[in-house]
Amino acid sequence: MLYPPTSIDKLGFTEIKELIKAHCLSEMGRQMVDRIQVMNNYDQIRKFLSQANEFKNILENDDALPINHFFDIKSLANKARIEGVFLNEEEFYQVQASLTTVFAVIAYFNEREGLYPNLVALFEHLPIEKAILKKIDTVIDQKGKIRPNASRELQEITSGIAKAEQEARKKIDMVFKNASSNGWTADGSLTVRDGRLCIPLLAENKRKIKGFIHDESASGQTVYMEPEEVFSLNNKIRDLEFDRRREIIKILTHLTDELRPYVPLLLSYHSLLTKLDFVRAKALFAIDIEGEMPVVVNEATLKLNNARHPLLLLSFKKEQKTVVPLNVQIDEHTRVIVVSGPNAGGKSVCMKTVGLLQMMVQAGLLISASEVSVVGVFKQIFVDIGDDQSIESDLSTYSAHLSKMKNFVEQANGKTMILIDEFGTGTDPQFGGPIAEAVLESLNHKKVKGMVTTHYSNLKIFASHTEGLENASMLFNNMEMKPLYILEVGKPGSSYAFEIAQKIGLPQNVLNLAKNKISEGQKKVDTLLVDLEREKKEIFDTKLKLDKQQRQVNTLLAENEKLKSYLEENKKALIKDAKDQAKNIILNANKLVENTISEIKSSNADKEKTRTLRENLNIELQKNTVKPVAPKPLPADDEELKPGDWVKLIDSETTGQVIELIKDNVVIAIGDLRTVAKRKRVVKVSRSSVPKEMRKSFSSHTGDVASFSPEIDVRGMRTEDALSNIERLFDRALMMGYGNLKIIHGKGDGILRKMIRQYLKKYEQVDRMEDEHADRGGDGITYVYLK
Fold first, then answer.
1. Based on the domain organization, do 478 and 352 belong to the same domain?
2. Residue 84 assigned as binding residue
3. Residue 341 is assigned to a ligand binding site
């Protein structure tokens, strides 16, 4: 499967296992991590990945799994299997605690039926035998000590010990009090020597009390005596303690005999606890590396999106740096990617990321890549990274590489992934290059898939015109001479040997001498690659700039269409009003003319009368004449505008109300629309000149604002109803510009609070969420602060 076996060390997989082991709670779990292997069984890989993904979901989104104790009950079960052997109190306590954990875990998943099917499969057919726990509970208490009433005999013995101790204490207290009053005792109180309660006496007074001396002080001035009056009582206590110990052994032996038939079941429970600890550790590590479960397919293919090397990611997290993500695809069309580019440009890291993530998936581990990534299953993974020269085996660096190439060529097939770093190096480039090309051609005929890194130009040229091979390069900023760590598929990259040497400070005469020593053709190729990379970078930057501008244009066009639609609707209304007014003017003018003619006739065309009537006619006609409106002067820069003022756009008849002033821009409300105009394009108008309908519509909107309350009480609601009501409140708050919301959800089990906060996290407008002060509701109330 893996060749050579040291591949797991070269790619960092051993280090990954050590990090997972650090999350294990038990030695059994750590042993299981040590046994992690790269698999090629598709169903098994999917099962292990799904288990880790489900446990990760529990850790991030559900209540904590009740895993409190992990003990090695396998060794205890094997001990109990032997006839005549018994488990002690501590060992029974470990079995008791482990069984409590097992039954709590099973109950946890039974309450969530259907949510975690792959984890449930760990104990799906496992019988729940609580009789074991009941038997242990009758003998061992929750602190792991044997119960005083575990048997009638034990209870009587314990009671007898207590009475004898009480009587002995009374007598020794009496003797001690008498000796103290006579001044026979040394400083101190009653003490225990050899398990017997003794009186500290001054050595010169040891003959004044009858008893047995158990010990003396280092100086010999104090002796510790057990008085004769309590000697027999202490002996009785000692005998009772021996009886108690024999009774406890009898009880534990009987309990072990009762446990023996359940040994196979205990081993099954042990296996469940071990697997849970193992899967939990994998899930915790996945959270550390921001791991996801990719799409797994049963074919030799790979498509990584936003992939990051997990070890590099963890290292950069500590330094508060970010890892440049990798996007790469290996399939039937692009089988082998030949990566070139400058040293320290990220070629090896790129290849190791591909190899390590492939190993992790086939070992059932979540990977630090997007969940839309597609990862297939390879039957073999061949790796050639680093220097494997061996003094013992008489292998040079190049011999070690050739030895691997021999195995690659002989054993590779269409379901093999190859990863070769610095392909062809270690010998004379004139020969190493052609040999590497021949090996690559042979591997390509076998339809292998994978990635190689190289500086050899002949391999770049070979990849450019060979089906199944694809050139790729690590982007490099040749202006600042800095690597960008971005893989670009489709063209080879320059090694930037002279540019890097120049930046490091190699003397110019040495550089010129070196340039003269390489062929003219090679110079042109390398110069062409550098120029191509520079142009590609410029095109890439220009494309990003154009994309940004296009998005801005699309936004402006959409706003323009809305404004145009609004103006079209207003235009129809204005034309209708104008026609009605013109019709009235014409009717009034006709009446005026007719009346004037009638009066002239009635006055027999008197000159003075006719002149007066004509003047009156001209005055009335001028009243109904539409005078052209002279353009108003541009507003002075110091003319004050404030929110709430009514303004008109100078280049149109559109009227709106000022919402906000931002530098030299004015945010204007035109009906339900919002637009932004330059300060010099608007002029302030009086409120009376604004149509009543427009003022009313804005007043109704401000009325909504006045009646709006940024507080909501969702206690007692179902989660779906609570979230629906909160969403409506959130939308209105955003429209009306409120800065914060108050959500009263109560405490309870904290589930509703957790769901509400998770739901609001998806909105980018939310800045942060905080609990209310402890005196005013604490975590039963959430304050939501908006950006």
1. yes
2. no
3. yes
